[in-house]
Design goal:
It is a single chain. The chain is of the alpha+beta class. The chain is built from four helices and eight strands. The protein has one domain: 2,3-Dihydroxybiphenyl 1,2-Dioxygenase, domain 1, CATH 3.10.180. It has an eight-stranded mixed beta barrel with strand order 1-4-3-2-6-7-8-5. 27% of the residues are buried. InterPro entries: Glyas_Bleomycin-R_OHBP_Dase (IPR029068).
Length: 157
């Protein structure tokens, strides 16, 4: 499974501040996108503010939940509103929908809950497997088509 890992991700309640922390303390430049909307198959769209960039071939992502089924993120953020930046998930990218579906099926067969399942519109699919009990973090799966060219414009560190 980990041979497909292409992203490490954090959650926060202030994406601009978190992106500055990465720039100032780690030397990692990230681009911030506001109002990024994801289609969720069994509910309202999931809207996030997100910071993205690459360190070598690994994509770094910081997510600030905005609206929709955000419990996947907000349950790990302080109710007080105090700033926080927490590691949240690893992401595996698959080349085909078949590989993606096999990974989801294998998790379901093992009794792993799929917390969110959705799409990037016509550009691909994503899902979060709740592997916190075994890995301490969520496992995200994605399959993208060639229409995700905006990824080429992300900062490279």
């Amino acid at each position: 499974m980990y041979k497909n890992t292409f992203q490490v991700a954090w959650i926060t309640n202030d994406v601009e501040r978190a992106a500055r922390v990465f720039k100032e303390e780690q030397g990692v430049d990230l681009a911030v996108f506001r109002g990024f909307s994801l289609d969720v198959f069994d509910g309202d769209p999931l809207v996030i503010d997100v910071a993205l960039g690459y360190v070598a071939d690994v994509q770094f992502e910081i997510i600030e939940p905005v609206s929709g089924p955000t419990d996947l993120y907000t349950r790990h953020l302080p109710a007080s509103g105090e700033y926080v930046l927490k590691f949240h998930h690893l992401c595996n990218r698959f080349d085909t929908v078949d590989e993606y579906e096999k990974a989801l099926a294998a998790d379901r067969e093992r009794g792993v809950t799929i917390a969110v399942d959705g799409s990037f519109g016509e550009s691909g699919r994503f899902a979060y497997a709740d592997t916190r009990d075994t890995l301490g973090v969520y496992q995200e799966y994605v399959v993208l088509d060639s229409d995700m060219s905006f990824l080429d414009s992300l900062p490279r560190n």
